[in-house]
User: What shape does this take?
Amino acid sequence: MIGSVGIINDPKRENDKARMLGYAMSEKYWGKGIMTEAVQAVIKYGFNEMKLDLISAYCYPFNNRSKRVLEKNNFQYEGTLKQAEKIYNGNIYDNECYILLNK
Assistant: This one.
């Protein structure tokens, strides 16, 4: 599997016109621009077909590749949610919050 990308309800926002972007990719395919292009297509679908006003995305502060995908797609840094997410091994991490508004 190469990876996946999609839009789901944002559990951090009570807004029917807002959704959260999520994506994951096999390390073998990192750095090839694939995810940046896939995210562009999902954003277009979210704004044009779903008629969203806002798409959010969250990543860990140390995930520079993910931040770069968001920056290339014009997401703006919104802030950091401290101690926001517990992962499979019990570690708790901050979430850096990004948004893209439908202009």
